[in-house]
UniProtKB/TrEMBL annotation:
Isomerase is among the record's keywords: no
Record-given protein name: alanine dehydrogenase
Domain of life: Bacteria
Family: Belongs to the AlaDH/PNT family.
Taxonomic lineage of the native organism: Bacteria, Pseudomonadati, Bacteroidota, Cytophagia, Cytophagales
Gene3D superfamilies attached to this UniProt entry: NAD(P)-binding Rossmann-like Domain
Keywords recorded for this protein, A-Z: Oxidoreductase
Positions of the Alanine dehydrogenase/pyridine nucleotide transhydrogenase NAD(H)-binding domain: 177-325
Pfam family, one: AlaDh_PNT_N
EC number(s) on file: 1.4.1.1
Domain Alanine dehydrogenase/pyridine nucleotide transhydrogenase N-terminal: 32-165
Keyword Chaperone: no
Amino acid sequence: MPAELSEISAVGLIPKESPAKVRKDSKSLTIGIPKEISSQEKRVVLTPEAVGILSNNGLSVILETGAGLQAKFSDQDYSDAGAKVVYSKKEALAAEIVLKIDAPTLEELEDMSQGSCLISAIQLGRQSKEFIEALNAKKITAVAFEYLEDKVGGMPVVRAMSEIAGSTVMQIAAEYLSSVNDGKGLIMGGVTGVPPTQVVIVGAGTVAEYAARTALGLGANIKVFDNHIYKLRRIKQLLGQQIYTSTIDNFSLSQAMAEADVVIGALRAEKGRNKIVISEEMVANMMHGSIIIDVGIDQGGCIETARMTTHDEPVYKIHDIIHYCVPNIASRVARTASYSLSNIFTPIILQTADLGGAEEMIFNYKWFLRGVYTYRGSLTNAYLGRKFGLSHKELQLLLAARY
């Protein structure tokens, strides 16, 4: 008989009795969702609806109390969906698979189980040699969700968060162009008889596409720069308009920036850290009160004057140009971002359970394998090996030796 109400114990909220399992052949995995430590991170990987699906399929979800509050999901929402809500972070971190947004701290890694699986962002710009060594000491299989691919070679998490960041970035620009934020006192777009806002976007990927859509919808003039002709051609086709596009060269870019009210750095690193394409001299020649937003700051950014900021102190000025360099822009709209992440990870976790664990996922699916950077005590990412002076092993060879 199902329990009438969730009960509170010394450990936490005990969920109502789950409905009958849909899959009877799935391995009963434990999924841990600890509360994010960073006050800047408001997203959560799984929504209560997703937890309900996992619980109905025989998986055990352990959620630290308050993990979803910043995205407006209560502990009761999760408990009613079948999660075990606990007051101990250590209990959530001890699960077989730990799902996080931010990479765990060294203290959190100490509480993770030997040989468990971590799925989180890697955040290359913030990582250290000690972090990699701590993962390997516990033989944790670590998966960077920004490197996960889908069946057609796309990066679903990157694309989803880029769509959100691109759509949000123009709202941010509009805020800081306003006179109340000591900006230029411009409306994003334009009105009759007044020239429209000039927007320069460096990069022609997903962030650029969604930023351009928003800017065009508001009536702004946009110029898009990228060194890949196929990306420039694609963004014109996707937008359905004859926008200004150019390859990145110092003269054309400098000229465009000198006239720009808003500059969006939307380049994504292809191998490791981003390259600087906007020099301090270009920034100094911009009109005072203009705004720069470097969306790729978590990978080093593409603007020489950019440095990482936070949601609490998001902007600073150099040469009287406002710089906004917050790495997790999607966290501004935490509920939307959480639903988007949950849509991606729910089927992945179900597949993992069907196969019997994360190791089987690595062996069976190349798109999942792409995200792995440590495996059973070995670093498997060549870029991290070079960055921190650590030896690395090819994951394919490790798997071949094991199987």
